[in-house]
Amino acid sequence: MNATSKPGLPGQPHIAYQADHLMLEGLRLSDLARAHGTPLFVYSKAAMLWALAAYQRGFAGRQAQICYAMKANSSLAVLQVFADAGCGFDIVSGGELARVLAAGADPAKVIFSGVGKTRGEMKQALQVGIGCFNVESEAELDVLSQVATGLGLTAPVSLRVNPNVDPKTHPYISTGLKGNKFGIAHEDALRAYRHASSLPGLKVVGIDCHIGSQITEATPYLDAMDRVLDLVTDIEAAGIPIHHIEFGGGLGIDYNGDTPPEADALWAQLLDKLDARGYGQRQLMIEPGRSLVGNAGVCLTEVLYLKPGEQKNFCIVDAAMNDLPRPAMYQAFHQIVPLSPRTGEAVVYDVVGPVCESGDWIGRDRQLLVQAGDTLAVLSAGAYCMSMASNYNTRGRAAEILVDGTQAYLIRQRESAFDTFALEQLV
Length: 427
Ligand code: LLP
Prior knowledge:
By secondary structure, the chain is an alpha/beta fold. The chain contains twelve helices and 21 strands. The protein has helices at about 30-35, 45-60, 75-85, 95-100, 120-130, 140-150, 190-200, 220-235, 265-275, 290-295, 325-330, 415-420, and strands spanning about 15-20, 20-25, 25-30, 40-45, 65-70, 90, 110, 130-135, 155-160, 185, 200-210, 245, 285, 295-305, 315, 335-340, 345-350, 360-370, 375-380, 400-405, 405-410. The strands form three sheets. Strands 4, 14, 15, 16, 17, 18, 19, 20 and 21 form a nine-stranded mixed beta sheet that branches. An eight-stranded parallel barrel has the order 5-6-7-8-9-11-12-13, surrounded by four helices. Helix 3 links the parallel strand 5 and strand 6. Helix 8 runs parallel beside helix 9 (about 265-275). Bound molecules: ligand LLP. The site of ligand LLP has 22 residues, from helix 10 and helix 11.
């Protein structure tokens, strides 16, 4: 496949039916399900690199650093793929820092976001020499300066500004509006920059914003960019140089016919604006998560029982809200397709898991032709699924496979029940 063509299922370029078998890259998903059991997450390395390539094309000829927002999928081997491809990382906890270093990341390419960094996390990040702290409040500036001076170090900082732009996405994943807890209000930003540059333990290096997630239009990005550039002009006029400008992540993916711009097309528009305003040659940074991994992964799940009912037919599968929390949390839609399609007439089912909550559903009102024992693929499961998975109902988390061509690597073993309570003790 060349760099831009898109065979495969809609939105899923690396997944396609071949002779009635759903394939991911060069492997039959049914073979992987048989060998490793279900629920099973399977990721395509080529799909991740393909998604990354769209950003790389977009930034060709520019000074740009792509920092993968690892919260989307923080499995070590996934991080390794992006570290090997030259990415930096956006982290939001000391745990993510430890994890990304274990995967081989360069700490100088790590940026640390989040509204609630603890002193311990700041210390940990300063000691390994991370590239930048994205600071989210004036109070955090004071604490970070104290921690850095206590260690005899200087913390490189960027202030996350809240541009008050509506990203037009689910309210739980909007982050750049006035009512959100994130960032420093646009009107307070200049004061906060003056404060930061007066503190002994800090060195101002940049400015950043992140307005939300699963954004499917360019306009909110263009608006946020204007707001941020207005601030850069004011901050530099006050004598505080801004070395890098960072525009967060948030680009959406195609879950169900969504039509977000391609990363390179989006950045062509954004770079035009940057050039027009004279900032095109600055050091640029972004923090994409979902758009790099979301459509690179599927979750395979076995049909346990079909349960016809008067009002609803239920297709009960062995994956649940602990594996795939997005439908329960955001009423999110994931396509669900059979690994080996049958012929006949489809029935409308709610696809649900074994967890004891009515909120435990994976898909509602889906046309499926299935029998118990069949395996289904829940698509677009590469982002915010395994990284948000839990042990609710003492369900061990699923295993994970990374596919590279015709090679399958087990990158996470299935958690046993024992693993889920190994750190507990009786009194
Ligand atoms: N940077 C910051 C500071 C963020 O908070 C996020 C995501 C990202 C970057 C990456 O955004 P992305 O490119 O992935 O949209 N669990 C939700 C999504 C939560 C997003 C949280 N922040 C979901 O499943 O839809």
